[in-house]
Amino acid sequence: MLFLEKKPLVKKILFVCLGNICRSPAAEAVFKDIVAKKGLAAKFEIDSAGTSGYHSGEPADVRMQQHAKKRGYTITSISRPFDPKYDFDHFDLILAMDDDNLHDLKEMTRNQEDVKKIHLMTDFSASGHHHHVPDPYYGGPQGFDFVLDLLEETGKGLFNYIENSTS
Fold this sequence. Notes:
Blueprint: E1 11-17, H1 23-37, E2 44-50, H2 62-70, H3 84-90, E3 93-96, H4 99-108, H5 112-117, E4 118-120, H6 141-166
């Protein structure tokens, strides 16, 4: 008799911003930390991408890495552009950081199934005070801290949403 090992359910999450050097790699690192602290890292595949290829192959912005490190996060991702052919088929949820990213992602969809996977990151905000995750690239240090604050809040909300929808 042949016994097949049941493969554990893995939830695949992709965070998307414009250049994939500030917000989306930070969201990836924050969310990886959230699931790791819950002991569920093996049940998630978490990645990030950009709607543009401006910074393809580059590490995250040094300022974002520094601010994240102060909070105990390590950003290791390398920037890559969103690939509609692969990413829509591979990922279960695709989270845009702002309306421009949301619009760009929707322009790349092939069908209604692709559209259903896309959400704004702030859709998972408990406070509901922010409609988007602002780009800190051209601002000062406080912008990076604010983005991390927002990603921590929305990351917890996203985790709760996933936990409640799969239980």
